[in-house]
Amino acid sequence: MAAPAGLTISTEYHRGSLTDCSASAVKLLKAANAPNARTYWQPNPDISLAENQRELTEILPYLSNVHLYNWKRGIFGFRFGRGAESWNRFFFHTGHFEEKTTMSL
Fold first, then answer.
1. Cα distances (Å, whole numbers) of residue 83 to 17, 20, 49, 92
2. What is the pTM of this model?
């Protein structure tokens, strides 16, 4: 229904959801077998920077939106600038994002 209308359907990507890691997100998107099925991504504060980079790399072909924020396990509300180093590493690690990838704060 969505594809003929030119719409993309994107899943959330966060802890406690069906798509809480790259393996489950990719599994669902492959099962959907639809070119307009995509996913959002946000870093998981419970895993390391390297693990987040690996997760991002694995879902990159399906990426439609990146949720930009800065927080750590159990702590919310850091100023975004305090996470700039991590975000730079995410962006440079992947090499690029598709033109259609959006960022949300």
1. 24, 21, 11, 14
2. 0.75
